[in-house]
Amino acid sequence: MSSILSLPAWARRAPAALYTIALFFFGCVNIGLPRTIELPLDKITHFAAFLGLEWLIELALVGTAVAARRRAAVAMSAGAGGLLELVQAALPHRSAEWLDLLADSLGALAGAGLLMLLGRLRSPRAAGASRQLP
Question: Is residue 64 classed as helix, strand or coil in its secondary structure?
């Protein structure tokens, strides 16, 4: 079975780059989600989009120490959200909102948290071994 590390660097980085391009494209075009009082689809979309970006950035950075990779992925994902909001502020048909940036950042943090949780669930022996008495 081959590992993610056996992939060339460009193959690990291309998904994050393409996803980021798509986020900026769809974040800049003149489309709109239906707005309802009951369900804030815009904020949910921001949250999910930047959770996904955080995961793809972590994939791109595989081979780096886990803590450093996770911090960098959260910072880059949230930073991309901030940059997108600045771009949207300059567009006549879009608007920049602090709540969008908050949803982007929370999505990036949730992505990191879910990956951390999945990592712990994948290796229960390692977690259990440290709790056992010698």
Answer: strand
pTM for the whole structure: 0.83
Instruction: Please name the residue that has the structure tokens 């608007």.
Output: 95
Q: Tens digit of pLDDT for each residue in 5-61?
A: 788 889 999 999 999 999 999 999 987 656 666 767 889 999 999 999 999 999 999
70: amino acid identity, one letter = R
Q: What gap in Å lies between CA 3 and CA 47, rounded to an integer?
A: 29
CA distance 19 to 6: 22
What token pair was written down for 17?
Answer: 């780059």
Q: Where are the alpha helices (DSSP H) in the chain?
A: 9-28, 41-60, 66-89, 98-122, 124-131
User: Treating both helix axes as pointing N-terminal to C-terminal, what angle do 9-28 and 41-60 enclose, rounded to 10 degrees?
Assistant: 160
